[in-house]
Design a protein that fits this description.
- The longest helix is centred in the first third of the chain and has 13 residues, at 18-30.
- The protein has 5 helices and 5 strands.
- The chain has one domain: Response regulator (Rossmann fold).
- It has helices at 18-30, 41-50, 67-77, 91-97, 114-125, and strands spanning 10-14, 34-38, 55-59, 83-88, 106-109.
- It is α/β, with parallel strands linked by helices.
- It has a 5-stranded parallel sheet with strand order 2-1-3-4-5, with helices on both faces.
Length: 129
C-alpha cells in the first residue's frame, strides 16, 4: 500500500492512554511502518483528513468520541479504503457494539501482545482478514 512503490504503509494510532499508544506505535515503527499518533478521536480525524493513512489502529473506549464513533466519521470522509484495527480492554461491551455496520476490519483485546499486534497488522495488509 502507500503512495510510492517502496514506501512503508502509514498507520495512525489513536488511543487516549499514553503508555498503550506509545507501545503500539513503537512496535509498529520497529517493523518499518510509518506511524502517526493521536490521543483522541477528534485529533485522529484531523490527522486523517490531513494525511490519510493506510491503516488506523484505534482504541474502543475513549472519552468524547469512542472508537466506533471515530470509525463511522472516518468512513464518511475517506477517499480510499482504509484498514481499521480496533483494540479494546472490555471484551464483552466491545463485542456487543461491534456489528457489520461498524466498519472495523479486525480487533485485538487488551492486553495486547507485541507478536499478536505485528501478526494481525501484517495479516490485514496481506488481505487475510
Amino acid at each position: 500500500m502507500g503512495d510510492a512503490p517502496n514506501q512503508h504503509p502509514k498507520i495512525l494510532v489513536i488511543d487516549d492512554d499514553l503508555a498503550q499508544r506509545d507501545m503500539i506505535a513503537d512496535v509498529l515503527s520497529a517493523e518499518g511502518y510509518h506511524v502517526t499518533k493521536a490521543s483522541s478521536g477528534a485529533e485522529g480525524l484531523a490527522l486523517f483528513r490531513a494525511d490519510p493513512p493506510d491503516m488506523v489502529v484505534v482504541d474502543f473506549a475513549m472519552p468524547t468520541m469512542n472508537g466506533i464513533e471515530f470509525v463511522r466519521e472516518m468512513r464518511a470522509i475517506e477517499t480510499r479504503p482504509t484498514l481499521v484495527l480496533m483494540v479494546a480492554g472490555y471484551a464483552q461491551s466491545f463485542l456487543a457494539a461491534l456489528d457489520s455496520s461498524s466498519g472495523v476490519d479486525s480487533y485485538l483485546i487488551k492486553p495486547i501482545l507485541k507478536h499478536d499486534l505485528v501478526t494481525r497488522v501484517a495479516d490485514l495488509f496481506a488481505g487475510r482478514f
